[in-house]
Amino acid sequence: MKFKLVRIDDRLIHGQVALGWSRAKGIDTILAVDDVVAKDKFQCSLLKMATPPGVKSFILTADEAEQKVKDGTLEKKKIMLLVKGPETLLKLVEKGFEISEVNIGNMRSVGGKTKLLNYVYASDSEISFLKAISAKGIKMYGQAVPDQSGVDFNEILEKI
């Protein structure tokens, strides 16, 4: 299955993603994947409320997302795959998700993280996951909003 956009954004579905990226990419389905959030009914309801009209959203664990993709019901959809962090993305890649390109969006600064871009901070383990994704030949680019130019994120990782 080919995704219209694959994005790491620790906020998952929010105004910027729901409106900006879905309009820019013609998205009709958002697949938000996070093992913790998917089990929290309150967070799921908040994410559903942030989904724009005309766009369907699913908030799933990695295993549920794998099943959803394999069952074929999303085959003709224009999907944005969202994950909170690189560990989940690597897990999906290892489950066989066909991902050739990743948009690195917001990864907030929380104590002890390294600043990689103005809107991307990563811990040592997150950097390791990002490097593992890059090592699989997946192109990564940093781009906070659709009307901004992208930055080659693979090159940034090579300098660390």
Automatic annotation (TrEMBL):
E.C. no: 2.7.1.-
Gene3D superfamilies: Phosphotransferase system, sorbose subfamily IIB component
Secretion signal, residue range per the UniProt entry: none
GO molecular function: transferase activity
Domain PTS EIIB type-4, first and last residues per copy: 1-160
SUPFAM superfamilies attached to this UniProt entry: PTS IIb component (SSF52728)
Keywords, alphabetical: Cytoplasm, Kinase, Phosphotransferase system, Sugar transport, Transferase, Transport
Pfam families: PTSIIB_sorb
Designated name of the protein: PTS sugar transporter subunit IIB
Protein's organism: Laedolimicola intestinihominis
